[in-house]
Design a protein that fits this description.
There is one protein chain. With 70 residues, the chain is an all-alpha fold.
Length: 70
């Protein structure tokens, strides 16, 4: 009596290509999530950078740096 093991099925070229096609959208979704995250952080930074206290801190840092080097 011969036993057939189904643990390691034979993969044909067609099944490998089908699996690759199924995974193509995954990278697109990952890029979309990454882009959304980057845009969210950029929006928060723009909001913070537009505030007066942030500009005062930046001016103070630049003035201190110029005084240290001059």
């Amino acid at each position: 009596m011969t036993t057939i093991s189904l643990r390691h099925p034979v993969r044909t070229r067609r099944s490998v290509l089908a699996r690759r096609r199924d995974e193509r959208g995954l990278s697109t979704a990952e890029y979309a999530v990454g882009t959304l995250g980057a845009c969210s952080i950029a929006g928060i930074l723009l909001k913070v950078a537009g505030s007066d206290w942030f500009m005062d801190i930046i001016k103070l840092i630049i003035e201190t740096a110029f005084k240290a080097f001059l």
